[in-house]
Amino acid sequence: MARPTLDSQFSITGVARPRIHEAVADQIRQAIFSGLLTTGHKLPPEREMAERFQTSRVALREALRALEKEGMITIKRGSGGGAFVADFDNALRALLDSLNTVVKLGQAKSAHLTEVRAILEPEITRLATMRATPENIKAIEAVVLAQEQELRSGELSRKLDMEFHRRVAEAANNPVLNIVVNAVNESIRDAIFRSKRSTEMRGRVVGYHRKIFEALQSGDAARARAVMSEHVVDVQCHIETADHD
Q1: Helix (H, G, I), strand (E, B), or coil: what is residue 229?
Q2: What secondary structure does DSSP assign to 63-125, as a single string?
Protein backbone atom coordinates (compact mmCIF):
# COMPACT_ATOMS: atom_id res chain seq x y z
CA MET A 1 0.00 0.00 0.00
CA ALA A 2 1.42 3.32 -1.02
CA ARG A 3 2.30 5.71 1.77
CA PRO A 4 0.45 9.04 1.68
CA THR A 5 2.43 11.94 0.33
CA LEU A 6 3.17 15.03 2.39
CA ASP A 7 0.71 17.06 0.35
CA SER A 8 -2.12 14.67 1.15
CA GLN A 9 -1.49 15.16 4.88
CA PHE A 10 -1.51 18.92 5.03
CA SER A 11 -0.65 21.96 3.04
CA ILE A 12 2.35 24.10 3.78
CA THR A 13 2.25 27.86 3.66
CA GLY A 14 4.97 30.38 4.16
CA VAL A 15 5.62 31.49 7.72
CA ALA A 16 5.32 35.24 7.99
CA ARG A 17 8.27 36.98 9.56
CA PRO A 18 7.30 39.43 12.30
CA ARG A 19 7.29 43.04 11.31
CA ILE A 20 10.08 45.14 12.76
CA HIS A 21 7.88 47.03 15.22
CA GLU A 22 6.43 43.75 16.53
CA ALA A 23 9.90 42.36 17.20
CA VAL A 24 10.90 45.58 18.99
CA ALA A 25 7.72 45.58 21.08
CA ASP A 26 8.27 41.93 22.00
CA GLN A 27 11.80 42.59 23.26
CA ILE A 28 10.64 45.46 25.46
CA ARG A 29 7.67 43.38 26.65
CA GLN A 30 9.92 40.49 27.63
CA ALA A 31 12.27 42.85 29.48
CA ILE A 32 9.29 44.05 31.55
CA PHE A 33 8.01 40.51 32.20
CA SER A 34 11.46 39.33 33.28
CA GLY A 35 11.90 42.23 35.70
CA LEU A 36 14.75 43.91 33.83
CA LEU A 37 12.44 46.90 33.47
CA THR A 38 10.25 47.68 36.47
CA THR A 39 7.33 49.99 37.22
CA GLY A 40 8.29 53.63 36.74
CA HIS A 41 11.46 52.81 34.81
CA LYS A 42 12.08 55.36 32.06
CA LEU A 43 13.07 53.92 28.70
CA PRO A 44 15.99 55.53 26.81
CA PRO A 45 15.28 58.36 24.35
CA GLU A 46 13.82 57.37 20.98
CA ARG A 47 17.02 58.07 19.04
CA GLU A 48 19.07 55.86 21.37
CA MET A 49 16.55 53.01 21.30
CA ALA A 50 16.29 53.14 17.52
CA GLU A 51 20.07 52.79 17.29
CA ARG A 52 20.13 49.90 19.77
CA PHE A 53 17.37 48.04 17.92
CA GLN A 54 18.90 48.99 14.56
CA THR A 55 15.57 50.21 13.29
CA SER A 56 13.88 53.43 12.25
CA ARG A 57 12.28 55.81 14.70
CA VAL A 58 8.99 55.28 12.83
CA ALA A 59 9.07 51.55 13.61
CA LEU A 60 10.12 52.26 17.20
CA ARG A 61 7.21 54.65 17.72
CA GLU A 62 4.80 52.07 16.34
CA ALA A 63 6.16 49.54 18.85
CA LEU A 64 5.78 52.01 21.72
CA ARG A 65 2.20 52.84 20.69
CA ALA A 66 1.35 49.12 20.70
CA LEU A 67 2.81 48.71 24.19
CA GLU A 68 0.97 51.79 25.42
CA LYS A 69 -2.32 50.35 24.12
CA GLU A 70 -1.63 47.11 26.00
CA GLY A 71 -1.08 49.09 29.20
CA MET A 72 2.58 48.04 29.41
CA ILE A 73 4.00 51.57 29.19
CA THR A 74 2.84 55.16 29.47
CA ILE A 75 4.08 57.89 27.17
CA LYS A 76 4.37 61.37 28.64
CA ARG A 77 4.78 64.45 26.49
CA GLY A 78 6.73 67.62 27.09
CA SER A 79 9.63 68.40 29.39
CA GLY A 80 10.61 65.40 31.50
CA GLY A 81 8.49 63.17 29.31
CA GLY A 82 9.28 59.91 27.60
CA ALA A 83 8.20 56.27 27.76
CA PHE A 84 7.80 54.77 31.25
CA VAL A 85 6.99 51.23 32.40
CA ALA A 86 3.38 51.34 33.54
CA ASP A 87 1.93 50.38 36.91
CA PHE A 88 -1.14 48.43 38.06
CA ASP A 89 -3.58 51.20 37.14
CA ASN A 90 -2.51 51.12 33.51
CA ALA A 91 -2.86 47.34 33.31
CA LEU A 92 -6.34 47.69 34.77
CA ARG A 93 -7.22 50.45 32.31
CA ALA A 94 -6.10 48.34 29.34
CA LEU A 95 -8.28 45.42 30.44
CA LEU A 96 -11.16 47.75 31.23
CA ASP A 97 -10.99 49.33 27.78
CA SER A 98 -11.19 45.89 26.18
CA LEU A 99 -14.18 44.91 28.32
CA ASN A 100 -15.94 48.19 27.66
CA THR A 101 -15.51 47.70 23.92
CA VAL A 102 -17.17 44.29 24.16
CA VAL A 103 -20.01 45.75 26.23
CA LYS A 104 -20.56 48.71 23.89
CA LEU A 105 -20.62 46.43 20.86
CA GLY A 106 -23.48 44.59 22.50
CA GLN A 107 -21.56 41.35 22.80
CA ALA A 108 -21.74 41.36 26.60
CA LYS A 109 -24.70 42.32 28.78
CA SER A 110 -24.81 43.14 32.47
CA ALA A 111 -25.98 39.56 33.08
CA HIS A 112 -22.77 38.25 31.50
CA LEU A 113 -20.66 40.51 33.69
CA THR A 114 -22.65 39.46 36.76
CA GLU A 115 -22.06 35.82 35.86
CA VAL A 116 -18.32 36.49 35.98
CA ARG A 117 -18.73 38.37 39.27
CA ALA A 118 -20.74 35.48 40.72
CA ILE A 119 -17.88 33.13 39.89
CA LEU A 120 -15.01 35.34 41.04
CA GLU A 121 -16.15 37.55 43.90
CA PRO A 122 -17.30 34.88 46.37
CA GLU A 123 -13.96 33.09 45.97
CA ILE A 124 -12.07 36.36 46.24
CA THR A 125 -13.98 37.09 49.45
CA ARG A 126 -13.07 33.67 50.83
CA LEU A 127 -9.40 34.31 50.09
CA ALA A 128 -9.66 37.79 51.62
CA THR A 129 -10.97 36.26 54.84
CA MET A 130 -7.81 34.17 55.12
CA ARG A 131 -5.28 36.69 53.80
CA ALA A 132 -6.47 40.16 54.83
CA THR A 133 -3.98 42.24 56.76
CA PRO A 134 -5.08 44.51 59.65
CA GLU A 135 -4.74 47.41 57.20
CA ASN A 136 -7.05 45.67 54.71
CA ILE A 137 -9.67 45.13 57.43
CA LYS A 138 -9.51 48.77 58.51
CA ALA A 139 -9.89 49.95 54.91
CA ILE A 140 -12.98 47.78 54.36
CA GLU A 141 -14.49 48.86 57.67
CA ALA A 142 -13.98 52.54 56.79
CA VAL A 143 -16.01 52.10 53.60
CA VAL A 144 -18.83 50.28 55.43
CA LEU A 145 -19.00 52.94 58.13
CA ALA A 146 -19.09 55.71 55.51
CA GLN A 147 -21.95 53.94 53.68
CA GLU A 148 -23.90 53.47 56.89
CA GLN A 149 -23.49 57.17 57.64
CA GLU A 150 -24.78 58.04 54.16
CA LEU A 151 -27.80 55.81 54.70
CA ARG A 152 -28.61 57.42 58.04
CA SER A 153 -28.42 60.88 56.48
CA GLY A 154 -30.81 59.85 53.71
CA GLU A 155 -28.17 60.02 50.98
CA LEU A 156 -28.67 57.30 48.38
CA SER A 157 -25.22 57.58 46.83
CA ARG A 158 -23.54 54.64 45.13
CA LYS A 159 -20.10 56.23 45.02
CA LEU A 160 -18.71 53.88 47.68
CA ASP A 161 -20.18 50.63 46.32
CA MET A 162 -17.33 49.83 43.96
CA GLU A 163 -14.83 51.06 46.55
CA PHE A 164 -16.07 48.34 48.92
CA HIS A 165 -15.60 45.62 46.30
CA ARG A 166 -12.21 47.04 45.35
CA ARG A 167 -11.06 46.90 48.96
CA VAL A 168 -12.23 43.30 49.35
CA ALA A 169 -10.38 42.33 46.15
CA GLU A 170 -7.22 44.01 47.48
CA ALA A 171 -7.55 42.02 50.70
CA ALA A 172 -7.30 38.74 48.75
CA ASN A 173 -3.72 39.80 47.98
CA ASN A 174 -3.74 38.26 44.51
CA PRO A 175 -2.81 40.92 41.91
CA VAL A 176 -4.26 38.95 38.98
CA LEU A 177 -7.68 38.50 40.60
CA ASN A 178 -7.54 42.11 41.71
CA ILE A 179 -7.07 43.40 38.15
CA VAL A 180 -9.73 41.13 36.65
CA VAL A 181 -12.49 41.73 39.20
CA ASN A 182 -11.93 45.48 39.25
CA ALA A 183 -12.15 45.64 35.46
CA VAL A 184 -15.39 43.64 35.48
CA ASN A 185 -16.88 45.78 38.22
CA GLU A 186 -15.96 48.99 36.41
CA SER A 187 -17.63 47.64 33.25
CA ILE A 188 -20.90 46.96 35.05
CA ARG A 189 -20.83 50.31 36.86
CA ASP A 190 -23.02 52.10 34.28
CA ALA A 191 -25.76 49.45 34.51
CA ILE A 192 -25.75 49.71 38.31
CA PHE A 193 -25.80 53.51 38.25
CA ARG A 194 -28.73 53.52 35.81
CA SER A 195 -30.85 51.32 38.07
CA LYS A 196 -33.35 53.01 40.38
CA ARG A 197 -32.25 54.20 43.77
CA SER A 198 -34.46 53.48 46.73
CA THR A 199 -33.97 53.48 50.47
CA GLU A 200 -34.87 49.80 50.53
CA MET A 201 -32.28 48.82 47.94
CA ARG A 202 -29.56 50.99 49.45
CA GLY A 203 -30.33 49.45 52.82
CA ARG A 204 -29.93 45.96 51.38
CA VAL A 205 -26.61 46.80 49.72
CA VAL A 206 -25.15 48.40 52.83
CA GLY A 207 -26.50 45.52 54.93
CA TYR A 208 -24.76 42.99 52.73
CA HIS A 209 -21.53 44.96 52.95
CA ARG A 210 -21.78 45.00 56.75
CA LYS A 211 -22.35 41.23 56.88
CA ILE A 212 -19.46 40.56 54.51
CA PHE A 213 -17.17 42.79 56.55
CA GLU A 214 -18.12 41.10 59.82
CA ALA A 215 -17.50 37.65 58.32
CA LEU A 216 -14.11 38.83 57.06
CA GLN A 217 -13.23 40.34 60.40
CA SER A 218 -14.17 37.18 62.29
CA GLY A 219 -12.39 34.88 59.84
CA ASP A 220 -15.56 33.06 58.78
CA ALA A 221 -14.58 32.28 55.19
CA ALA A 222 -17.62 30.13 54.41
CA ARG A 223 -20.07 32.81 55.53
CA ALA A 224 -18.17 35.61 53.79
CA ARG A 225 -18.26 33.62 50.56
CA ALA A 226 -21.96 32.81 50.87
CA VAL A 227 -23.03 36.38 51.65
CA MET A 228 -20.99 37.81 48.77
CA SER A 229 -22.59 35.30 46.40
CA GLU A 230 -26.07 36.28 47.58
CA HIS A 231 -25.21 39.98 47.32
CA VAL A 232 -24.00 39.78 43.68
CA VAL A 233 -27.15 37.92 42.61
CA ASP A 234 -29.39 40.36 44.49
CA VAL A 235 -27.82 43.36 42.73
CA GLN A 236 -28.29 41.72 39.32
CA CYS A 237 -31.96 41.00 40.09
CA HIS A 238 -32.38 44.68 40.97
CA ILE A 239 -30.74 45.76 37.68
CA GLU A 240 -32.95 43.44 35.61
CA THR A 241 -36.10 44.57 37.43
CA ALA A 242 -35.20 48.22 36.87
CA ASP A 243 -34.51 47.56 33.17
CA HIS A 244 -38.03 46.16 32.70
CA ASP A 245 -39.86 48.88 34.67
Answers
A1: helix
A2: HHHHHHHHTSEEEE-STT-EEEE--HHHHHHHHHHHHHHHHHTTS--HHHHHHHHHHHHHHHH
pLDDT per residue rounded down to tens, the chain (245 residues): 454 444 444 444 444 556 888 888 888 988 888 888 888 889 999 999 989 889 899 999 999 999 888 878 888 888 888 899 887 666 666 766 776 676 666 666 777 878 888 899 999 999 999 999 999 999 999 999 999 999 999 887 778 988 999 999 999 999 888 888 887 877 777 767 776 778 888 899 999 999 999 999 999 999 999 999 999 988 888 776 654 44
The model's pTM is: 0.64
Q: Please answer whether residues 170 and 178 qualify as being in contact, where contact means their C-beta atoms are separated by less than 8 angstroms.
A: yes
- C-beta separation of 86 from 32 below 8 A: no
Q: Which domains does the chain have, with CATH numbers?
A: 20-86 (1.10.10.10), 90-244 (1.20.120.530)
Strands, E, within the chain: which ranges?
73-76, 82-85
Long-range residue pairs from 161-164, CB within 8 A, at least 24 positions apart, any chain: 161/192, 161/205, 162/186, 162/189, 164/140, 164/209
Q: End-to-end distance of the chain based on CA atoms, in angstroms? A: 72
